[in-house]
TrEMBL record:
Keywords: Signal
Protein name: Erythromycin esterase family protein
Domain of life (superkingdom): Bacteria
Pfam annotation, one family: Erythro_esteras
Organism phylogeny: Bacteria, Bacillati, Bacillota, Bacilli, Bacillales
InterPro entries: Emycin_Estase, Hydrolase/PRTase-associated, UCP036794_erythomycin
Alphabetized SUPFAM superfamilies for the sequence: EreA/ChaN-like
Segment forming the signal sequence: 1-23
Length: 456
């Protein structure tokens, strides 16, 4: 798989596409490929394609609608599929498929209203998460302005607005908490979250906290520039961030202070700042992206442990998978870290499609957005799902039998829609076993681009 294409996802790799260069990642121009749709067939022990499709269809759970405003009865099979898990990964084949976003909105509503999930973590920066959390608690601000890259879509804004409506209803005692899991950058509001709390509650610590964050806050908003700093300077920033975490911890312990909801968020924010400074210390790409996904997972675990309830983890299929789909670009992913930490308490739901188009960047530097067409690969799992005669369906990959059971174990091409359009480059990862990477699959036969304004 062409390295440049694999570098262009949402999350950290969009923001790091230039910064990663300093960490040793190649940026050769995309080459033309004659591999699209011609991957060598996988072995299926002579099982016919028709029998696999029939086996899948007989065990799939048909979903009636994509509309989040419609009843959720067709999602009831998820209750048994998820069981008592405290963490659910919500994957997406692209960062720009309207129908996938709509279906994920429906699943979020079901997880909240029927299964008690109240922490919503998304592949979005921590600072934007703070603003979005304030919005769903108070109604302050415009959620579209707090969603970045390919996420400020009509579909996702509608979901955030539903969260606000849910939280504003006094009948719902346990409120949804919105968490930005990502570390693409830290804007000034992140540092202010800590500084303002210290100013009000522990003013004696203010000079040291402000001094510790002064230089760091001036550079953390531009990751590409931050990566150009020397290791010595980056280590100084890390030591200063660690100092603030310790100051807060020591002060609250000495005062025998029980963490309020506000202090929980402040301490969490100080730790996120520390994690950012740790993430960008390595000079090699694999170590950097491992830390990136490790912290995605740790921030999700923080939400569950500190805020209570159960936690949803929304991101690209690559990040929420239980293992590595593309080793060269993501040698270890958030879903794998979660699986190691919490075992069967984590359930990974992938979502994918067979045909259509999706929103992606035409140019990252100019922030131009367009639509890319999903390529056909007749040997892919996506193509096989397309043989099922349902417009959309759920499939529990752990509980299949017959031809479908063997088929989901096989390694085969799997759609992986990036966040930038690079012509003549395959959109599929080879050798992906669905059962190894996901517990549940949501498939939507045809998808269209998400609704987002171009040239934002």
């Amino acid at each position: 798989m062409n390295k440049r294409r694999k570098m262009i996802y949402g999350g950290v790799t969009v923001m790091l596409s230039a910064a990663i260069l300093t960490a040793g990642c190649s940026t050769k121009p995309a080459e033309k490929s004659d591999q699209i749709g011609t991957t060598q067939p996988v072995e299926t022990a002579q099982i016919s394609q028709n029998s696999i499709a029939k086996s899948l269809e007989s065990q799939a759970k048909q979903l009636k609608t994509l509309d989040p405003k419609q009843p959720l009865d067709d999602l009831k099979p998820l209750k048994d599929m998820i069981g008592n898990a405290n963490y659910v990964g919500l994957g997406e084949a692209t960062h720009g498929s309207s129908e996938i976003f709509m279906m994920k909105h429906r699943i979020v509503k079901y997880l909240v209203t029927e299964l008690g999930f109240t922490n919503f973590g998304i592949e979005e920066d921590w600072g934007n998460g703070l603003k979005l959390n304030e919005y769903i608690q108070t109604g302050k601000g415009d959620p579209r302005e707090f969603l970045k890259l390919l996420y400020p879509t009509d579909e996702i804004v509608a979901m955030v607005e539903w969260m606000r409506e849910y939280n504003s209803d006094p009948v719902n005692k346990k409120k949804i908490q919105f968490v930005g899991l990502d570390l693409k950058m830290l804007d000034q509001s992140v540092f202010d979250k800590v500084i303002n709390y210290v100013k009000e509650h522990h003013p004696e610590l203010l000079p040291e906290v402000e001094q510790s964050y002064k230089e760091l806050s001036s550079v953390a908003g531009n990751l590409q520039e931050y990566m150009k700093q020397t290791t010595e300077v980056k280590e100084k920033h890390m030591a200063n961030a660690q100092k603030v975490v310790k100051l807060l911890e020591d002060k609250t312990k000495s005062n025998k202070e029980t963490d309020s909801h506000e202090l929980t968020w402040v301490k969490g924010t100080a730790t996120v700042i520390e994690n950012f400074t740790k993430m960008v210390i390595p000079a090699d790409y694999p170590s950097l992206v491992k830390l990136h996904d490790q912290y995605l997972a740790e921030h999700a675990i923080w939400a569950q442990e500190k805020l209570g309830g159960k936690t949803m983890v929304w991101g690209h299929n690559i990040h929420i998978a239980k293992g590595v789909i593309t080793e060269k670009m993501y040698p270890k992913v958030a879903g794998e870290f979660l699986k190691e930490r919490v075992g069967n308490q984590y359930v990974a739901i992938g979502s994918t499609t067979t045909e259509g188009k999706f929103t992606a960047f035409i140019s990252l530097s100019e922030n131009k957005i367009g639509a890319d067409t999903i390529q056909m690969n007749k040997n892919s799992s996506n193509h096989m799902f397309g043989q099922v005669h349902y417009d959309q369906f759920l499939l529990d990959l752990r509980k299949l039998n017959g031809a479908a059971q063997q088929w989901v174990k096989e390694k085969q091409p799997f759609l992986d829609g990036g966040a930038q359009i690079i012509p003549n480059t395959p959109q599929y990862d080879d050798d992906v076993s669905l059962q190894e990477q996901f517990d549940i699959m949501v498939h939507i036969q045809k998808t269209t681009p998400s609704h987002i304004k171009c040239n934002r």
